[in-house]
Structure prediction request, 541 residues.
Amino acid sequence: MRPRNPSGCTTWLRRAAGAGLAGVLLTACGSGGTGGAGAAGAVPKPGGRLAFALTSDFGCLDPQQVSSIDSVYPARQLVDSLTDQDPATGKIVPWLAERWETSPDATAFTFHLRPGATFSDGSPVDARAVKANFDTAGKLGTIAAQAASYLQGYRDTTIVDDLTARVSFNRPAAQFLQATSTHTLGLVSPASTAKPPAERCASGIVGSGPFTLGSYQKNQSITLNRRAGYHWGSTLWKQQGPAYLDQIVFQVLPESGVRNGSLRSGAIDGDSAVASQDEASLRTDGFTLQYKSAPGLPYGFSVNTGRPPLDDTAVRRAVSRAINRQEIISTVLTPLTKPATSPLASSTPGYVNLSADLVFAPDEARKLLDDAGWRPGPDGIRTKDGRPLQLTVQYFTGQTSAKTILELIQQQLRAVGIAAALHEEPVANGGRVVQAKGYDLLWGHTKGADPDVLRTQYSSTGLNFNNLRPGPLDDLLTRQAATADQNARMALVRQAQELILTNQYNVPVIELTVILGLSAKVHDVILNADARLQFHDAWKS
Prediction:
């Protein structure tokens, strides 16, 4: 299928301690980067109900806490952001903020809000609401690890006047402006910021977005209703009034066969995770396949460096050399998938091609293990000091093609003498699993349209799936986030990528591509800068 779904378009978790690994590459098929095909010049028609299939339910309706891509899809529709990011250019453009100023040292950001925007409870989207969000989002802790990462060094928000807020940091925060375009820092009402995090997840939040929450049946469906009177959308959207659709129903359908059958029968209008075997026939039968590569971290393994045998760099490098990325693509996925060539996906700003260090070299893998003292046993699995070289590989439900990909990697590792035991957990348990660090290799990816995603993942004070101790990488990641000069910042980002790969803290495997299957009646679905869905402009003919 496509990398888009090695995690079945679901990606990650973060909620109880972990964070979301998700990424995807974006390019458009059929309808360019925006959405369902339609007759040229067709006039959008208001009204209608759109049914859209998800592969899983993370169990949280708060965009500041969710990280699983399936959970982000509905949550994104509930909230607006201060800014938006053009997926074609990466430029930050107005949304709730009409304009802004950034201090030369990137420690202060002054946002001038557009008048008239309100949350669905009637409260105004004003400077006080901005302050309430930023004062609380970073304090949600590990259940909102990405928000906390974006707000590292946050000092305060000053209410200059009703529609002007100055956000200040105690150190440069070069990544913050881009962060304000994400769902993670989408604004919720002051009343929502006052609620306990668990309540925000269970009952949802009040946002200022084009849709409001109608109902939520865990592991079954989420229903959103159009908000009347909405007129403060992103400047990237085609129209500025209310959304066209009356209602969106997100249905949780884990099985790809069920989703495919439901799409063909008309029971649903869109599938978030088209299986590779269904791509060609759907296209032939008149369905729209819309796809996009997402920036961030490729799909691969976060390596637990805190326990043997992966505390040894040689063993980590042997794992990487044993993986045949092209075989995975040609056997399991489709040509839409790219092999990983860096710790960053190739669509991410600051990406550096380090493919020379991500080659398939099984003989080198064997030599690395030989030199590290691991000798082949009678069953082919290597041993050292009486212990077999067996790794625990953790992955999560909703990652549609993960099992097939990992079973192939399991065979590739065995060919050099490494045994891999695959363990699957419900995505809702992700935080607990990540916090326990009981795995050797953790399969996933993280989306992010700014190279600061490296800090989110690899800082010893961040998500730290890799169980890293404080060291030189922390310094590089902290400095890049605090460097306002873009050339100097990108030089630090390059060094960070090289250091991550040199030490093999991560084993990048494939870049993720999000692929949607849409009925020909569905038009103008947007895949935004980080390959997440926006339905404001969507309509049905």
